[in-house]
Every structure is written in C-alpha cells, then in structure tokens.
Amino acid sequence: MKYNYSDIPEVTVRRLSNYFHILKCLKENGVDFISSKQLAALAHTNAVSVRKDLSYFGEFGKKHIGYNVNFLMKEIMKILNISKTNKYIIVGYGNLGTAIAHFPGFKDENFLLKGIFDINKNKIGKEPIEGIKVMHIEEIDAFVKENKIKFAVLSTPMNVAQVTSERLSKAGIRGILNMTGRHIRVSSETLVFDINIVTGLEWLSYFVSKKGDKR
Amino acid sequence: MKYNYSDIPEVTVRRLSNYFHILKCLKENGVDFISSKQLAALAHTNAVSVRKDLSYFGEFGKKHIGYNVNFLMKEIMKILNISKTNKYIIVGYGNLGTAIAHFPGFKDENFLLKGIFDINKNKIGKEPIEGIKVMHIEEIDAFVKENKIKFAVLSTPMNVAQVTSERLSKAGIRGILNMTGRHIRVSSETLVFDINIVTGLEWLSYFVSKKGDKR
DNA sequence: TCGTGTGAAGACTTTCACAGCG
DNA sequence: CGCTGTGAAAGTCTTCACACGA
Lengths: 215, 215
Fold this sequence. Notes:
Arc Repressor Mutant, subunit A, 9 helices, Rossmann fold, DNA-binding, 2 domains, homodimer
C-alpha cells in the first residue's frame, strides 16, 4: 500500500534507525536473510511491528524467506536520507565533543565530520582528527554557508547552549543534535533532537524502583 | 484522583525528568512560581499535557497561581526516586566514559559516581576524579555487591557491549544506561535504557529531508 | 507450512471542554 | 477572571487475525 509521509508515525522513524544498526551488525557477521521475528527479537520489539514499520515505505520482504539484509539496509538508507554523505559539525569541543568526534558509529554511516568549533584559544588551530581543524565559533557562519553544512552536534557547556543554538540556526543549520542537557528554542526552520544523558538514569531510577509493583 | 502505577504512560515519566531539568534551571534564575503554560513552552509541549502528567502523581498546583518551583522539584524527585543519592559506575573509560564522568548534569542530581572500570592497564589505578579510581573490570562483581551499586553507564567499545552487559547483570546491576550504540540483551532483572547518538542524526536527516512535504 | 503485508480492533496518549476555586 | 485538575472525545500507535504466496 502507498502511504503519505504524514501518515507515518514518528516512532517508526526512530525504530527504522534501530533496525538499520542491527542489520549492519548482522551483515558484518555474514547474515544474508532475516525474518521480522528475528529482527524484532534483536530490536526489543515484535514481529508485526517490524513488518508494519517497513510496510509504510514499501514491500521489502520475500514470503517464506524474510528480508535480504543488504537490500533492506539500502532501502532504509534511502528512507532516512543517508544514502549520500551528510556533512556535520561539532560545536563545543570539550569531553563530550571529543567523544563524539571519535565515536565510531558515525564514520560507517555516511555522516561526515567537516569541522569542529570552540572558543578556547588553546584548542583552536589544532587538528585532532586528520583533516579536521578546530575553529573559532566566530567562523561558523561562513563555514556552514561555504560547505553547505546541514547538521550540527551541540556539545557546549549548558550556559551557552541557547545562544549558540540561535547562532547555528541563523547560519543555516537545519538540524541540531542537542547534547547539552539544556532545552533550546530555535526558529522552526531548524529541527532539534535532544539527547539528555541524565534523563536516561532518571528513567532507570523510576522503573527500577517500581519493579515488584504490579504492572 | 489516585492512579495505579501501571496506569501511568511511559512518556509521562520521560517528560517528568524533562520538567525537572527545566525547573532546576528556573530555580537557579530565581523563579518561584510557574504555570503549566509557561512550563509547557519551555518543555516543547502544551499546558494540558503538563497538568495531566503531574496529575497522575498528585495535586501539586495552586489554582490561580500555578506551581511552586521548589515544591514541584521535590515532588518530582520523590516520584523518580532521586531524593536520596543513587550510586552508579562507569564501565568503559574511553572518550565517552570520560565525557560522562565529567558531565555536570549528574553531580547536581543526586547521581553519585562511585567507580570506573576498564581493561586498559595504562588507565587502571589512575584517579581521574577526586576519590574515584579506575579499576579492572574483573573487580566489578565484588565492587557492585560491596557498594550496593544499582546503576551502570555502559560506554565500552561496541564489540564487547554484549558480554560486558551480561557481566553487569550477573553482578547485580539493576539498570544499564547503554551508550555503546549496540543493542544488548540481558536478563529481565536488569533494565536497559539505550542512548544512541547516531540515531539522533538519522532522525534529523529524515525529518529535515521531509520538510516541505505536507505534514 | 512458514513468513510477509494489511485492514480492523484494541490499547494507549493527547487534546478538548469544562467544573472548581482563589 | 486565571489557572488547575479531570472525565470524555479524538487521535495515534500497537496488536490481532487472516489473506496470500513460495
């Protein structure tokens, strides 16, 4: 069946990214085909959910056999718009920025780091990664426009999260991955995805303490 | 009205953690009272949702006035079970582990780092943070039991994520914050919260590319 | 038989609409 | 009035049940 993009649940998109990471892992281990049931088990969900999620975008499976791992990966990449390289920058090069710059997940997934920005004089000019220099934040605007950068990972200290995100939005950044732990408000032209590490522990704290109560 | 814990939406718990971070920020800025509408604006949601979320746990607001920031913070801390200190450990002390160990968000929120574990001989024995030594992963079991640690942040390389998480679960860890980017499967005794940075960029990639289509 | 794809039913969440109270 | 708390309606997402094909 054919769906309109507006019919597609948000959660589906997030799970798709999940499936993709699992498929990548399976491919590395030489798995060629996988059923919705097997994929579901690995993704902590259920088979129908997997099939439904995929069915929003097309019919990728073969009856009796399941899904071709490699083919399904390529289809998900098309859907997520990661078939071609997406350039991104890191803004705020402290511990977190360093971790992200070296995180192996990005390299294999067509996200290409193009620049790092900070305000610390001692960091600026250094080249922590082959070909990637740390630049002063004043240079962001020109750099983003010249290199047509769409995505930024925001890893500055909390107290400058808001002002920095506004600058990114004005420079033309279309998507901000906000890891500062502070909420930011930007123009509706720019999308924000929040990753808050502390929230993760709080969620665990709640559910661990509730275990034993009837559910 | 009184609700059973099983009636409470999962999303509500996650938003609660959000509200809490915002309230903390407001308190620092000297704000004493806030309406559901104001809080909603800061949390990227709407007023009814804020009130409904809170109403699952009690009646914390004052009509005509709104919510007392300090009081509401304390109530949310009770709900999330973070009124008393929660001890946690970091497992895998690479770039990401380092970033988490120094992340300011944890300290102010009653999450107390008690130990760091790795297998790298050059790291073991060091004391990167006052009072916190890096220990060998072999020591985890004894340490967790002796110090009654419930929570662990998993920041090892992907290829050892599964085996390490099993070890944590066996040692008695009740909640794992999984930042490895790999899916892990552990006994149902242990809860897992996944934070995958790459998923964030993929989500942004999808929605940025879909902007302009009717929604 | 085994596994996909999918309308329809059911469950869960959000939003509406309004009572209640300072 | 202005703002909270909450049943009920609307909307969204998940699960059921089954058609279909290898």
